[in-house]
Amino acid sequence: MNVKQEMQIPWHCIWITGAGRGIGAALARLLCERGATVYGSARNLDELNQLQSSLVSAPGKFIPVPLDIRRPAEIAALFERWDREQRFPELVVLNAGTHDPASAEAFSAQRCRRLLDINLQGTINCLDPVLHRYLAGRKGHIAVMASVAGYRGLPTAAAYCASKAALISLCESLYMDLHGTGMRLQVINPGFVRTPLTDKNTFQMPALMEVDDAAEAIYRGLLSSRFEIAFPRRFVFWMKLLRLLPNRLYLSLMRRATQKTL
Description:
By secondary structure, this protein is of the alpha/beta class. It has a single domain (about 10-260), classed as NAD(P)-binding Rossmann-like Domain (Rossmann fold, 3-Layer(aba) Sandwich). Helices cover about 50% and strands about 15% of the residues. The protein is built from nine helices and seven strands; from the N terminus they run H-E-H-E-H-E-H-E-H-E-H-E-H-E-H-H. The chain has helices spanning about 5, 20-35, 45-55, 70-85, 110-135, 160-175, 210-225, 235-245, 245-260; strands spanning about 15, 35-40, 60-65, 90-95, 140-145, 185-190, 230. A seven-stranded parallel β-sheet has the order 3-2-1-4-5-6-7, with helices on both faces. The longest helix has 29 residues, at about 110-135.
């Protein structure tokens, strides 16, 4: 029997942020095809509607939720609706994020703020109400999308790496605080995945994965008991090894690898 068919999906209702494209859309598709009801949120309603149209024959159901995670009032309105309907998601995947590669010459507070407002503060805006509702019910499953880019600084990705490093630390702290509460919290650290965000990169990306393969890896990780869902395995191994290097050696290696003066 196919491994995919053997797996029983444990969630009936799921919320995924950043579901309009990339990893979020691929994961929403996979979960709908395996029978779940997925609320997919994003700012671009057209992308959500297109995804919904492509899933009309799926065993599950995709429900578009236009939402700007930078706006707490919009998130509060969504949660009030779920409270009225008594249909709160059992799994929340806080996936929404962006990337804006820039060299030191193009560095600016405005660019950093724009990225951090989505990647970090936007995730926190969603995490706040989810966390408190799950704690009240002593159950629930949250997964936060970070990145292996949060392990160490990378060229032209100062704000992006900072946002992902912050999310990793945030999840590590909350994971310890949530021990014994009945809740599950995981952090997702992908390597390079072919999406509209990585299409912005001008360098060769090692171990580049297709988005459907990434969605499958995330799904398997969500079914596991691991805190960190990181892939692809070999690339993650080398990235974690780089974390152990002294700064002088790491910066020298990265300078040579990227042919840039850091």
